[in-house]
């Protein structure tokens, strides 16, 4: 080895010592180059968004690129671009709009569409996808990022931010002004808000990444529960699974069921094998949800919450489950993060068919049912249509304007 | 490639990520403190490798006047190389030896960098990716995501203060690692690096989360300390705290060229090149001699 090194030294060693210094710094630069080159292996995951597609008036509204909403006209198996927002090429007013990423579906309010963006902006655009100040459009920059979606209830737009603030704005006003007595800068809560807020009978319920669930009266802004619900792991999603019970999963995998009226835990907790970071599906009195360890769970909740009442043993599909499944007929359609689509017989609890979509980017967005098909969108904007009767998955062709 | 990635992740990256989370929990749930402590600990563990690298460089510095002398003395490139190699061998130096420890440290430093970047979870997707790296221990999972506030600075975003700190510390590091060179080209390179590197790193820092920049500042400060221990800091009158790695090499023989074989610095028996003693500037003469020989033939 030494001889080999010496031989190498004889052949490549520069004639003077100063080059050793040069070699040292070359080594340092190689280190940086190695970091840059290996970035693709480890993956830093810049924000891309995981908003599910939305179907409205025969159109599909979907984020096909980071922070860019596309309206597509659906004609059988073909989609044609109608417009995109923001569209810097054709609309100078939209030049400075950069939503970065959007994690919640667009909200349709009369003639407008509302988008809650990771850039920390709430944007209200016209239904034909334009930002037109003076015609009711506005952009509200807030502190922090918005990861969950916003909700609209009784003319109020409610959303939380990653810097732990809860905002309540007047959705119909010309400038999206704050609704008193809610603070203009948002109400500080117990931690960063990633989960979409819920509104139940005039009460806003939010979950934080510090593991708290808090409830506020929408009109007065005052706390409703005596004490917030608290668990020791971050809560990234919050769902109402029946009229009284909140589904509160933690990133550690422990799921609590919380009473909406009191904020107290109901029954016993359930410990999933992996993190639970998707909204559950409730259909026919059965609660379905997946975890990051690849398990799909099903509980009968017709007679209250009882984690012992399993419909069937958990089904392991072998990949991270981030997307909420759908049930069409007797088939549950589930997709893993690495784009494996599973058709599951809900009666028997068995996988009927498994289809792997090769060379597809990660799938985080929830599946949406439309016209008896399951619609799946990937991180890079590939759109798939799964047919639970034919057990096939096809990529839908999109005719869009090239950039 | 996948296998290398898996080994790298299992052996280096995952343990580092989990250790970083443990440090965060121990150090008052302050991720900034965890990054600093983690960097210092890893650099101390790899200190033997760093020291070896620094000592090799220092040894070469000690030998440099002799190498310069040999370069001036021998005009024949082959012979010059042979003599230089001999000098290195006599002093117990492998000229590329300083690169070995550096190469060994690469995977560790890359894993250190990645572990910080991963745990920062700068986006929801990044936090989701972290799942595959965190061990299934409630103590660890309960602290995810880690807080990114460090004295009012959001470590998941770039910060101008960190850009300045990265530039400043990198400049000091290049200063403390610069060795005395007599060669003009090497000196010019040193001068260039002294300014180029800080500017380059400042440029990178603009696009990196400040948590990664904090790691860079911490690791650079540790490097500065190691440099001072090894090389000293003449400006402040600080002498090296470690003993020189090799004994001072023997002086060069007095005879101009090595017709006297036994006096060669390498101690090897050099090949016979000519019975005539060559002078340093005899390269041109040799060429013309060869030409003349060809003509006469």
Care to describe what's here?
The complex is a heterodimer of chains A (403) and B (297). Chain A has 403 residues and is mainly β. Chain A contains 2 helices and 33 strands. Chain A has helices spanning 2-12, 18-42, and strands spanning 54-56, 59-65, 68-75, 78-85, 107-109, 112-116, 121-126, 138-141, 151-153, 156-160, 165-170, 187-188, 198-200, 203-207, 212-217, 229-230, 239-240, 245-249, 254-259, 270-271, 281-283, 286-290, 295-300, 315-316, 326-328, 331-335, 340-345, 350-356, 368-370, 373-377, 383-387, 392-395, 397-399. In chain A, the strands form 8 sheets. A 5-stranded mixed beta sheet of chain A has the order 1-2-3-4-33, with no helix packed on it. Chain A has a 4-stranded antiparallel beta sheet with strand order 5-6-7-8, with no helix packed on it. Chain A has a 4-stranded antiparallel beta sheet with strand order 9-10-11-12, with no helix packed on it. In chain A, strand 9 (151-153) and strand 10 (156-160) form a beta hairpin. Chain A is globular, with a radius of gyration of 25 Å. Mean pLDDT of chain A is 89; it is low at 1-17 and 39-43. Chain B is an all-alpha fold and 297 residues long. Chain B has one domain. Helices cover 65% and strands 1% of the residues of chain B. In chain B, helix 3 (47-73) crosses helix 4 (77-91), helix 3 (47-73) crosses helix 10 and helix 8 (160-177) packs parallel to helix 10. Chain B starts with a helix and ends with a helix. Classes of the chains: A mainly beta (403), B mainly alpha (297). Chains A and B meet through helix 1 and helix 2 of A and helix 1, helix 3, helix 4, helix 5 and helix 6 of B.
Helix tally of chain A equals: 2
> What is the gyration radius of chain A calculated from CA atoms?
25 Å
Shape of chain A: globular
Summarize the biggest pleated sheet of chain B. Answer: 2 strands, antiparallel
